[in-house]
């Protein structure tokens, strides 16, 4: 017995993943992904001072935990967007941006490949505490 696979547009909404329950739009997701890159750079700058006293260590841990919480949402949204519709160019773009976050399980770290892409696919990078708006 063969089964016909329906196009995503043919499936009732009640059976689809509700992306808006995580982020209201791809633009909102992208803004949080960019902010995550900025937060990651801030945490990197804290590395030199975490051993100075308990307060700096606590600050770094708080910042790191907050980033992991946000990255959970950022990565889940990007994975699900791409997984539910491989033909969606926007979903592929979101997945590509999320690919800029890499992990190093041996060190328990997450880091950025340094660049993210704008909607046109042109790379941009984090500069001076925020994602640069101009293309590289």
Describe what you observe in this structure.
This protein is an alpha+beta fold and 136 residues long. It has one domain. 46% of the residues lie in helices and 13% in strands. The protein has 3 helices and 5 strands. The strands form 2 sheets. Strands 3-4-5 form a 3-stranded antiparallel sheet. Strands 1-2 form a two-stranded antiparallel sheet. A hairpin with a 4-residue loop joins strand 1 and strand 2. Helix 1 packs antiparallel against helix 2, helix 1 packs parallel to helix 3 and helix 2 runs antiparallel to helix 3. The longest helix has 31 residues. The chain is elongated, with a radius of gyration of 18 Å. The chain starts with 25 loop residues before the first helix and ends in a 5-residue tail after the last strand. The C terminus is likely disordered.
